Amino acid sequence: MTRTVYVNGDFLPEHEAKVSIFDRAFLMADGVYEVTSVLGGKLIDFDGHAKRLQRSLDELEMRNPVTVEELLQIHRDLVEKNGIVDGLVYLQITRGAPDDRDFVFPDPETTTPTIVLFTQNKPGLAESPAAKKGIKVISIEDARWGRRDIKTVQLLYPSMGKMMAKKAGADDAWMVEDGFVTEGTSNNAYFIKGNKIVTRALSNDILHGITRAAVLRFAREAQMEVEERNFTIEEAQGADEAFVTSASTFVMPVVEIDGVALGDGTPGQRALRLRDIYLDESRKAAI
Ligand code: PDD
Description:
Elements: E1 4-7, E2 10-13, H1 24-28, E3 31-39, E4 42-43, H2 46-59, H3 68-81, E5 87-94, E6 114-121, H4 129-133, E7 135-141, H5 156-167, E8 172-177, E9 180-184, E10 188-193, E11 196-199, H6 210-221, E12 225-228, H7 233-237, E13 241-246, E14 250-257, E15 260-261, H8 269-285
Parallel strand pairs: 7-8, 7-14, 11-12
Antiparallel strand pairs: 1-2, 1-6, 3-4, 3-5, 5-6, 8-9, 10-11, 10-13, 13-14, 14-15
Helix pairs in contact: 6-8
The protein binds N-(5'-phosphopyridoxyl)-D-alanine (PDD).
């Protein structure tokens, strides 16, 4: 089936959608994005993603070409036009396409932002077999820029990190800076020891995950202790459980870090419980 995608005000078959070669995101990674999951035909955590999008745009002094209401309608129209029951909606806004390549930002009066959205069909997204087995991660140096709180399309290093993990026979990588774990290549990282969940505190060093915010809220409601602080790979290796969170994987148990199995090497009970709670509550609140 040909996907219907959205580009600058138009719904088009994917092969008819076009963006200029002078687009700032193509030439300079001058763009921001969001990924929102769809379960049962409804959007998960839409408000959180819309707010973070606005924050990313504000931090980069980029104009938002759509209102939140328009954005929601475009998401819903795409889900419907593509018959998505379970899947993802990818959204990207760039600084637009000036007449020529130039490091200086183009005049926002004459260069309008580019906005693109498309869906990814993922039947059974919440019943992922990986969640039953858990994933293995390796640690790698965090070689990204210093504003990881802005969700930009500069994804080359995370992409290289995934390839390093793949070559090492693992599923993903946790990035380490100055001896402490920042986050996963495309997710936030946690370990559990006893009744306590530990994850890095919010700062410019990590993306402020929308799933992270919800999961930590549910964890506190379930009487789990939450500690937001720096931690090392060694500390996580000595934990009872570990997991990652993101809009595309929800709560995903981690069973091995740099070749060291956690607990008995199977997904931890608390991580699985948090996954169930997150999925239940998110489905209830989906719009
Ligand atoms: N990635 N950290 C990084 C570096 C990420 O790229 C992501 C999300 C997260 C989790 O954020 P959230 O819970 O809001 O999805 C943390 C998306 C899913 C992606 O790039 O596909």
